[in-house]
From TrEMBL:
Organism this protein belongs to: Natrinema salifodinae
Pfam families, per the entry: ATPase
The protein's name: RecA-superfamily ATPase, KaiC/GvpD/RAD55 family
Keywords for this protein: ATP-binding, Nucleotide-binding
InterPro entries in alphabetical order: KaiC-like_dom, P-loop_NTPase
Gene3D superfamilies attached to this UniProt entry: P-loop containing nucleotide triphosphate hydrolases (3.40.50.300)
Source species taxonomy: Archaea, Methanobacteriati, Methanobacteriota, Stenosarchaea group, Halobacteria
Molecular-function annotations in GO: ATP binding
All copies of domain KaiC-like, residue ranges: 61-295
Domain of life (superkingdom): Archaea
Length: 334
């Protein structure tokens, strides 16, 4: 026989356990201090180890409009999310924006870059008008540099930077974690864990990996699979810190683990079937374990400062783009 949820005296709302905050499904464990769902929770509460409300950290509203419109209740914080899409769909900008939105919420962020040196990674924020210098100074942002030590002449590269890149590099020096051998899976994992420990990232913040395509060029397929599995277990599942990785061809000759290792997959595509002579960008959630999502495509565009924004089926795309004279002007706010 199924158990009945215990409710408040009015019979309207399920009673929450005083420790784990989940509904009490059977006879409660009662004490002078409250009611609990189990002996384990009652004893834990007696030891002053009451948990925070799990809703506070188990769901993430990303702040990215097109994505949040498809996942109205938020993305589970223990998710490893894959951004899979065509070239030209602004996968990289989406990854950077997710990190920026975390910083905007006052949370820490880690960007693990395989495709660019740290100054170029930081420049992606600045290209969007997002000033990360305060986050660097307040120790809320880490850049894990998996690129620079792959260069033949690292010193020459540093000497050839312009004044702005030199300034940004020096300002970010304490926030950059250098990986000396990106081909060493264990060093990659240890560098990430060290950054998470330094920023005290448990139940807060976000990690982005740019990109799995580049990582595959460094590691063998088996090692990429082991890396993703390890990160998912030790970061997402153990710490409740979401990880977002970008790849260009998942499910179509891309990472073989894509269909079952990742908790969520967001597809990004270009389509020319909505507006004549125009290729519009769309995204959809293919899967997301532990969350409801709308099974539809959302048309979107990107604008500096604003980031990715959605426009609906009744919007004339020509009002979002200036199309017709061979020149595309900047997008208008809608």
């Amino acid at each position: 026989m199924s158990q009945q949820l215990w409710t408040d005296p009015a019979g309207e709302y399920p009673l929450e356990c005083g420790h784990c905050h989940y509904p009490i499904p059977g006879d409660p464990e009662e004490t002078d201090d409250g009611m609990y769902c189990s002996t384990a929770c009652r004893e834990a509460a007696a030891d002053d180890s009451t948990m925070v409300d799990p809703v506070a950290y188990k769901r993430v509203v990303t702040g990215v409009e097109p994505l949040d419109s498809l996942v109205p209740n938020g993305i589970p914080a223990d998710s490893f999310l894959l951004l899979s899409g065509d070239e030209g769909t602004r996968r990289a900008e989406l990854g950077i924006e997710l990190a920026w939105r975390a910083l905007e919420r006052g949370e820490p962020a880690v960007v693990m870059s395989f495709a660019n040196p740290p100054t170029a990674t930081l420049e992606r924020f600045y290209q969007n008008g997002w000033n990360v210098l305060p986050a660097l100074e307040t120790d809320r942002l880490r850049i894990i540099d998996c690129f620079t030590h792959r260069l033949d002449d690292r010193e020459e590269f540093l000497e050839q930077r312009n004044d702005w890149s030199t300034f940004v590099g020096e300002a970010a020096e304490d926030a950059i974690v250098e990986v000396r051998d990106p081909g060493d899976r264990r060093e990659l994992i240890n560098s990430l864990r060290g950054a998470l420990d330094d920023l005290e990232m448990t139940e807060t913040g976000l990690v982005t990996l740019d990109s799995l395509d580049e990582l595959e060029s460094i590691l063998q397929d088996r090692l990429v699979h082991e890396f993703v599995t390890d990160v998912r277990a030790t970061v997402c599942k153990a710490r409740f810190v979401p990880v977002v990785a970008a790849a260009s061809t998942a499910g179509e000759g891309g990472p073989p683990e894509a269909e079952y290792v990742f908790d969520g997959i967001v597809d990004l595509r270009l389509t020319d079937q909505l507006v004549p002579d125009a290729r519009l960008k769309q995204l959809a959630v293919r899967k997301l374990i532990g969350a409801q999502f709308l099974p539809q495509w959302v048309t979107y565009e990107h604008e500096p400062a604003r980031g990715l924004f959605a426009f609906g089926p009744n919007t004339d795309a020509r009002q979002v783009y200036e199309i017709g004279d061979g020149h595309r002007q900047s997008m208008r706010h809608r």
